[in-house]
Amino acid sequence: MLCLGNQLSGVRQSPQRYHFINVPRLISTVIAGGFGGRSRDQLTANELELVTLVELRESVLIGQGLPFAERKANLLGHAQGLQVKRMGRDVA
Fold this sequence. Notes:
The chain is mostly helical and 92 residues long. It has 4 helices and no strands.
């Protein structure tokens, strides 16, 4: 995985406040399949790590100027890849 600095080097625009209004809902949908309103206090350490990594990716995608639908598809693939890696790491 590229480091965040390398990803940010392609930033095209400065994120605006409105970009982040639906981010919690999008991230919850990507990770849990729906918006359930779970507090971070209820998440496991692995779930918190996944949320953090997806939030970082979302910030980069917003900075790159990607529209919502493209960001959502990208985040779904990213989260699934992270979960597969985690499952492999937990099995080993």
